[in-house]
Amino acid sequence: MALPPPLALQIIILCNCSLLAKPSPQIQWQVDGNIITENSSQPDLKVTTLTQDNEVISSLRWTGSLEGDRSIICSGNNSLGVYTMQFLLSNQGTGETPLDSGSQHIPANTAIMH
């Protein structure tokens, strides 16, 4: 009987942007230069956004495998300006094998614009 193939390591990357500005800002996400919206058809990328008064909180959740280097950009703007935060992800392994072959959670920083 053949052994099943090894499980691929899946990761969960959660990037958060919280922008507070007047007038209220808009947030846009880009992954490797591609714009990702709440209505995006990519199943491994999900954007959620909450707006309350002059604060916008947006999260991008990426589930899957990290192959190669990736760039995630959170860009907030209103009529007075633009604020951009870039998350650079690199898959430069250490050669170590993780103990849990299920999933890893990698938190990313939060951008705050006042």
TrEMBL record:
Coiled-coil boundaries: none
What domain of life is recorded for the organism? Eukaryota
Name the InterPro entries for this protein: Ig-like_fold
Indicate what this protein is called per its UniProt record. Answer: Ig-like domain-containing protein
Residues in the signal sequence: 1-21
Compositional bias annotation for Polar residues: 94-107
Which portions of the sequence form the region Disordered? 94-114
Q: Which UniProt keywords apply?
A: Signal
Q: Which organism is it from?
A: Salvator merianae
